[in-house]
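re the bet — no i am not wrong, look at it urself. input seq straight from the record:
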Amino acid sequence: MEEEFSKLRAAHDAVVLQNCHLETELLKMKDRLAEAEEEKRKLIAAAAAAGGVGAGAAGSSSPSSSSFSTVTHHPAALVGQFGVEPEEAAADLTYMSEYAYNSYMNMMDLAPGYFGGVVYDHFN
């Protein structure tokens, strides 16, 4: 009977020890999470102060050499501005990335025969 009690006591002590290790690991993870959230808050505040995130830019966790911002399309806001007439407000605005634009222009320069045998002049 004492031998059985000794085995149960050893198993219980092992479970308690494992529980302590898990609680310690949980506390460390909570500290890391709090530090990460604080760093995230600081980065968001710095980006907002610089006019990035607060102005509608797409945030990213990694730095990038190019900038990209999102713009909400409100055609009614253009009426009367920049020469936009009410009937033109219904026209859709199109976004073309710089890469796509450059690829398109390169294709136009390489395919002069496509436009009636003359070189396409995209500036006239």
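see?? Residues 1-62 form one domain. told u. also Residues 2-49 form the longest helix (48 residues). so pay up
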